Amino acid sequence: MPDHSQILSEMNERSKEVFRRVVESYLASGDPVGSRSLTRSMSEKVSAATIRNVMQDLEFMGLLGSPHVSAGRVPTQMGLRMFIDSLLEVGAVEAQDRERIDATLAPEGRDVASLLDRVGSALSGLTQGASLVLAPKYEAPIRHIEFVALAPDRALVVLVFADGHVENRVFAPPPGQTPSSMREAGNFLNALATGRTISELRQVILTEIRQRRQEIDSLARELVESGVALWENPGESGERLIVRGRGNLLEGTTEAEDLGRIRILFDDLERKRDIAEFLELTETGEGVRIFIGSENKLFSLSGSSLVVSPYMNADRKIIGAVGVIGPTRLNYGRIVPIVDYTAQLVGRVLSERSKG
Fold first, then answer.
1. Looking at the domain 95-129+245-355, which fold is it?
2. Where would I find the Heat-inducible transcription repressor HrcA C-terminal domain in this sequence (predicted)?
3. Which one of 158, 242, 306, 345 counts the least CB within 10 Å of its CB?
């Protein structure tokens, strides 16, 4: 990757100003920027011909490009990256934006899913992009586990958590299960589960089965060992990624090429694929990260930008993420603080609820 600080140091003040104004104008309008329009906004009086020469130099450096036959220029992916890393001015969250995000917490209650859904809707509304909210896995201690047979190849596991939350998961049990083997499996798990989260239970379960093989019937052991009912629930990962505001991505889009890219992005969002990778994007450190175009490995084919930030629990462990995805001409200066504030707020609220 090019050294942006070195490139900037080689540019004179006029080049930097032309570059910054082209990028800012493009991010605001989405249109190519011509030399004539820049003559009106430059801090020093220069001719359109002089600005054209500077723009040609910036194009030669790989920072600007010429779309189609337009006389105007737009920033390249490399140019956007350099602008974001070196020249982007990010302020505080505007008061009305903060109020709207805070308002998502207004309806009190313990339902984390509806809270995150409201957060996603607020984010997409504020940014006019699509919002992505990765919900945390449910990690409260377990109070009780019970298996219920529904059909020869279908069963239900009821998980009752210490905070009163109840989950019913339908699954396909190993063949040959009987009411007594299900009852025995439930008793075995309850002896281990009380006070432990699902993640903690998973860690101890195989060790306990090895040590107590003679104490548990083979059918019940199969049911416990399969673990399907508890931590490989089909569709659970799909429910963790909440996507809101897809329609915003179509606003003002007429170019067939752009529509094609958005369709690819819609397909990716519909599949909600690579959720683990989505979280990995944020795990290299705290704070907001920006992925532009092909840097964004989850949605690279759509040429979109992703602004994403992790949120943490009370133990400072990353448990989820919030983000905004849209065209590369996002209003980064406004969206970055919104995403950052939202992530911190969600982390704080979930930490307080886990203590409550």
1. Beta-Lactamase (3.30.450)
2. 114-336
3. 158
